[in-house]
Design goal:
Layout (H helix, E strand, L loop, with lengths): L22 H9 L5 H22 L4 E3 H6 L1 H11 L6 H14 L4 H25 L5 H7 L1 E2 L2 E2 L2 H32 L1 H9 L4 H11 L4 E5 L4 E3 L2 E3 L4 E5 H4 L34 H18 L4 E2 L6 E2 L7 E3 L1 E3 L1
Antiparallel strand pairs: 1-11, 2-3, 4-7, 5-6, 8-11, 9-10
Helix pairs in contact: 2-4, 2-12, 4-8, 5-6, 5-8, 7-8, 8-9, 8-12, 10-12
């Protein structure tokens, strides 16, 4: 079993997304059982119940900040369950994500605060499991798992847990919020989904395409030329999935949301070996969140379009979303 001592120096990795084969292949395979269709489907009832509880809190009020009171809570609840922790840690999770993803790109101090805050929390979680016994959660699994015949090292346990926290919360929260933002501003699409609820799965794919929340970064491995621009080994390179999803060579009327668009080979979850491991989990959460909102909340509009605030950094979604209904 991996051991964590006092705060020590180690490389920050978030496998498998930050690693290449063969390490990537083995680590991704290790995590696959946590994202199997059966395990994800088992979480659906919890997501539905949580969405209903959140809506109960503002039903009948006539207005809500759907980002603050709804979208941000659903993935935090799910990831907390998968990590096997108390749901009261949600505010901590959101704070670390803000420090790491939103403020981190322009503030090394904020990024460090987020990472070290999470690491101290994780050390406490590991100590609890060491004392009380392992559970059926990701942290326990990583502590007892083996890769290539060896226990996972400290950085791998940290990185695997951090990946679930960062990739599983902010991206899904953003996708839920962006979907509700679109429907609030496009009454014809909202009315159509209410009249044709069977269209929801296709509509969710289109909303993911149109408002893909993630831009990923990679490192150039050899000197080359990309669209006429020279790139050099070691250069950082941003891969904006949202731009790819608006490519007119790949999508007809790319800037228009077409709820019944088919086929729809969007890249909101990435491509190739690094395609999002939790894509089916995120898809389920977004679908449930939008479906329950439409089912419980009367026709809604943007209460003040100018008051909507979007996140910055590599994950984009509304952080303030005032709706009226």
């Amino acid at each position: 079993m991996a051991e964590f001592g006092a705060m020590s120096d180690f490389s920050i990795i978030v496998p498998p997304i930050s690693s290449d084969p063969p390490h990537h292949t083995g680590f991704r395979k290790l995590l696959l059982p946590f994202f199997s269709p059966r395990r994800i489907e088992a979480l659906r009832a919890q997501v539905v119940a949580h969405a209903e509880e959140l809506i109960d809190g503002f039903e009948g009020t006539g207005s809500v900040d759907a980002a603050v009171a709804y979208a941000q809570h659903i993935p935090v609840d799910v990831i907390g369950t998968m990590l096997g922790v108390e749901q009261g840690d949600g505010d901590l999770f959101r704070g670390w994500i803000r420090d790491t993803l939103e403020l981190g790109p322009t503030s090394i101090e904020s990024a460090a605060a987020g990472l070290f805050g999470f690491r101290e929390w994780l050390v406490a979680q590991i100590e609890r499991r060491t004392h009380d016994g392992m559970g059926d959660d990701l942290i326990s699994f990583l502590l007892t798992a083996e890769l290539d015949g060896r226990p996972l090292d400290e950085a791998e346990v940290f990185g695997g847990s951090l990946l679930l926290l960062v990739a599983g919360i902010d991206t899904t929260w953003s996708a839920i919020g962006a979907s509700l933002w679109h429907l609030a501003g496009h009454p014809e699409d909202q009315a159509r989904l209410r009249a044709e609820p069977e269209l929801l799965p296709t509509a969710i794919e289109e909303l993911l395409r149109a408002y893909a929340p993630v831009t990923m970064a990679r490192e150039v491995t050899r000197d080359a030329e990309l669209a006429g621009c020279p790139v050099h080994r070691g250069d950082p390179l941003l891969l904006p999935f949202p731009a790819a999803n608006r490519d007119p060579e790949a999508f007809a009327e790319p800037d228009r949301v077409i709820l019944d668009r088919q086929p729809n080979r969007h890249v909101a979850f990435g491509l190739g070996i690094h395609r999002c491991l939790g894509s089916n989990l995120a898809r389920m959460e977004v679908t449930v969140a939008v479906e329950r909102f439409l089912a419980r909340v009367p026709t809604f509009t943007l209460a003040d379009p100018d008051a909507v605030r979007w996140s910055t950094g590599q994950v984009r979604g509304p952080r303030t979303l005032p709706l009226a209904f």
